[in-house]
Design goal:
Chain A: InterPro entries: ABC_transp_permease, LivM-like. The complex is a heterodimer of chains A (about 350) and B (about 240). Chain A is built from 18 helices and four strands. Chain A is mainly α. In chain A, a hairpin with a 2-residue loop joins strand 2 and strand 3. In chain A, helix 4 runs parallel beside helix 9, helix 4 packs across helix 15 and helix 6 packs antiparallel against helix 12. The longest helix of chain A has 28 residues. The two termini of chain A are about 30 Å apart. By secondary structure, chain B is α/β, with parallel strands linked by helices. In chain B, the strands form two sheets. Chain B has a six-stranded mixed sheet with strand order 6-7-8-3-9-10, sandwiched between helices. A four-stranded antiparallel sheet of chain B has the order 2-1-4-5. In chain B, a hairpin with a 2-residue loop joins strand 9 and strand 10. In chain B, helix 3 packs parallel to helix 6. The radius of gyration of chain B is 17 Å and the shape is globular. The two termini of chain B are about 30 Å apart. The chains are: A mainly alpha (about 350), B alpha/beta (about 240). The interface between A and B is medium-sized, with 18 and 24 residues.
Chain lengths: ~350, ~240
């Protein structure tokens, strides 16, 4: 049953299985296991980014396509929900319409970009996605009447999903609309992730992997490589847009910085590389590590800096303001020690 | 000569600034094995790649079953019924043997009877069915490359040096598989340097030199005439 649910793609390493189970348990029980708003917010971000990163891995790791437009599609989903909620008023219908329209718009744009540029060499496709994503980010900033410009949009989501909806206590923990909202994010992300796992383990997914390895051979066997690449781009775009919709439902705010910025694109790239390209489970581990480091590294460094107060130089190096430097060092070290990503390393250890 | 399945008429192909094929003309008769022979660098591989569409023919005609292939993209040529086994094998190393074979069947699931036949022809593939193709030996990779091209019934097979660098036992396996394919009525255009294989399998031969066809005729005639071999290819085929 479980093997069927994960499309037969077992982790193939006891350590990886244990880590994935631990992550699943922590995310499933986050409102009850961890205290505070920040922890729940981090758990929700992890769920959403797992889908976003796994969707990107479908392109980069499985099909061998480098795209810089993933955050653009993420933003389209987020703005879809924001605009629908702003114009239709709070309600589940607005969330649904916004999500569907955001995903459809992402698919149409991905289709156009794909058909026009996937015939050309990979580097040109990467450049075109970069140009389109930059153009869309500028347009979103400029059309402030519609998008709220740099300030973004704040809107209301159904009251039942907010903290105002108090639903009593479960296991000694207050169960509110926010908790309900978290489970909406959690289960939606889980379903999307399992769907992606299904796609990459389907015959379609095998063709994508064949294209990544040798596109001419795949073509010479009889597969229309452009069609498959375009389909993968559209699926990845739709996944990113749906992740964006979930992000918008969780945050109740969208702005260029939170959904469209190039920094997020770089984060996604780092998460894919750290976890391991070409494996959906890599997206899970990469995201968890990266988001936790992004959220808690400063606190950890603050504590370490405080603990080493008496020593020379070290407290300065561990100053929380230098967290980005340490994140960079962690990234360099992880690429050095795990060139095939954490999952590649864990699976490699298993086979030796 | 029987009705040709493939006809090349005055095919010219350039690679970058080099004019490689300089008017190639020959026919591949239906249901026969045609050997494409010649010294190294005369354009044999380029001919196969031009038929398949990896290189674009600058001029001339490539007629497959009466249809001009030049207008078709590579994948359409494959779906029209041409199986291609390149010299570099082109197996998908990260995928398992099974996944490679399943990919070879483009129009549906791998037919169980065909799978059984291929595993009987290439028993090593059954042993390593669930292994990653990248971990196979050179000979096993070559077997996989050919078996994958045969995973689906195709009318014409273009095969580039399938026995290159292989042990005699594997060469025999390979030759038997190709013989069975021929017995099924399929046509094969085979680039092969191994004289014994060429002699055993070939019905007709096309000899190339400097991007042109310089001789066509029965394989038996070429195999029995050392002077002709030396005249056409610079040395006796037995010396290979």
């Amino acid at each position: 049953m479980i093997v069927r649910l994960i499309s037969g793609d077992t982790p193939r390493s006891p350590v990886l299985t244990a880590l994935l189970l631990l992550i699943l348990i922590c995310l499933a029980g986050a409102p009850f296991i961890f205290e505070g708003v920040r922890a729940l917010d981090t758990a929700a971000r992890i769920c959403i980014f797992i889908v976003l990163v796994a969707g990107y891995d479908l392109l980069l790791g499985y099909t061998g396509i480098v795209s810089f437009a993933h955050t653009m599609f993420f933003g389209m989903g987020a703005y879809g929900v924001a605009l629908a909620s702003t114009h239709m008023g709070r309600g589940f219908d607005a969330l649904l319409v916004g999500s569907v329209l955001g995903a459809l718009a992402a698919i149409v744009l991905a289709l156009l970009i794909g058909l026009f540029s996937l015939r050309v060499r990979a580097i040109f496709f990467a450049m075109i996605t970069l140009a389109v994503a930059s153009a869309v980010a500028v347009l979103v900033s400029q059309f402030s009447d519609i998008t709220g410009g740099e300030d973004g949009l704040t809107y209301k989501i159904p009251r039942v999903l907010t903290s105002a909806n108090r639903m009593g206590e479960v296991m000694g923990v207050k169960f509110t609309g926010k908790t309900l909202n978290y489970y909406l994010i959690f289960f939606s992300s889980l379903v999307l992730f399992l769907l992606l796992l299904r796609i990459v383990n389907s015959p379609f997914g095998r063709v994508l992997q064949a294209i990544r390895e040798n596109d001419f051979r795949a073509e010479a066997i009889g597969y229309r490589v452009v069609w498959y690449r375009t389909a993968a781009t559209c699926m990845s775009a739709a996944t990113a847009a749906l992740a964006g919709s979930l992000f918008a439902i969780w945050l109740r705010y969208v702005g260029p910085d939170t959904t469209l910025s190039f920094e997020i694109m770089l984060d996604i790239l780092l998460m894919v590389v750290i976890g391991g390209m070409g494996t959906m489970y890599g997206a899970v581990l990469g995201t968890v590590l990266f988001v936790l480091a992004q959220t808690y590294l400063q606190n950890l460094m603050g504590a370490a800096s405080h603990a080493t107060e008496g020593l020379p130089l070290i407290p300065d190096l561990l100053d929380p303001d230098r967290w980005l430097m340490w994140l960079g060092i962690l990234f360099v070290l992880s690429v050095y020690f795990f060139p095939t990503g954490i999952v590649g390393r864990l699976r490699g250890q298993q086979s030796t | 000569m029987s009705d040709p399945i493939l006809t090349l008429k005055a095919v010219h192909t350039d690679i970058a600034q080099y004019h490689i094929l300089q008017g190639v003309d020959f026919e591949v008769p239906r249901g026969e094995v045609t050997m494409l022979l010649g010294r190294n660098g005369v354009g044999k591989t380029t001919t196969l790649k031009t038929i398949m569409g990896q290189w674009t023919a600058k001029s001339g005609e490539i007629l497959y079953d009466g249809q001009d292939l030049k207008r078709l993209p590579v994948s359409a040529r494959a779906r029209a019924g041409i199986g291609f086994v390149p010299e570099d094998m082109g197996i998908f190393s990260d995928l398992t043997v099974e996944e490679n074979m399943v990919l070879g069947a483009t129009s549906g699931p791998l037919d169980p009877q065909r799978k059984e036949w291929l595993l009987a022809a290439f028993p090593a593939l059954g042993t390593f069915w669930n292994s990653e193709a990248g971990n196979l030996s050179g000979g096993q990779k070559q077997m996989l490359s050919i078996a994958r091209a045969m995973a689906e019934d195709r009318e014409l097979y273009l095969i580039d040096e399938p026995t290159k660098g292989l042990a005699p036992a594997i060469i025999a396996t390979m030759a038997n598989a190709l013989r069975e394919l021929k017995a099924q009525g399929r046509s094969i255009l085979l680039v092969e340097q191994n004289f014994l294989v060429a002699k055993a399998l070939g019905d007709s031969a096309v000899v190339m030199d400097d991007g042109r066809v310089i001789w066509t005729g029965a394989m038996a005639e070429l195999a029995s005439n050392k002077d002709l071999q030396e005249n056409l290819m610079g040395l006796s085929m037995e010396a290979h």
